[in-house]
Amino acid sequence: MDNEFLPADRPGAPNESFPAEEVPASQALSKRAARRLIQRAFVLVGRDRNVRQHIREASVVTLWTLEDWKLAWTVELERGKVHFERRPAKHPDLTLTWRTAEEFFNQIENGVPPDDGLGIAGNLHLRRFSQPVYQAFCKALRKVLRYPFDDEGNRLT
Predict the structure, then answer these.
(1) What is the residue range of 102's domain?
(2) Looking at the domain assignment, is residue 8 inside a domain?
């Protein structure tokens, strides 16, 4: 199984002696665990060369929220760099809102297009910059859900 984000020599890496973990059901995740996994996925998105190439001219502040869990992240795209923080932006250019964490994780785990269950507000023209970030985020979070370890091999959940 391809796993470009997890070095093979790290604990938790897929190999013959350590079986891969099942994808956790979104209902089984606590808010704290979900927050850590989502933050890890944002870190991985920031390292993605393809994403940096697509946003090299962007200057966009987006707010991502899970309403039922009252979780929010500010994701700033600034000239090829992705910055994120847990505090909500006061004046985001674009806001992505999921009503429930269950909808959010189902989209991620099942690869469902973001149009279902996702509310988008703000300058919709800026979505062209947020779209490659969102796609890379989904890919990264799916991998983090399957292999919930950081760079040092510490378990995130």
Answers:
(1) 30-146
(2) no
Q: Directed axis angle between helix 127-146 and helix 101-110, to 10°?
A: 80
Give Cα 4 distance to the centre of its chain. Answer: 16
CATH label of the domain that carries residue 48: 3.30.1050.10
Residue 38 lies in a domain: yes
How confident is the model over 37-60, as pLDDT tens digits? 999 999 999 999 989 888 888 999
Rg (CA), the chain: 15
pTM of the model: 0.78
What tokens appear for 27 in the block? Answer: 């209902």
Instruction: Give me the number of domains the chain comprises.
Output: 1
Residues 6+ apart with CB under 8 A from 49: none
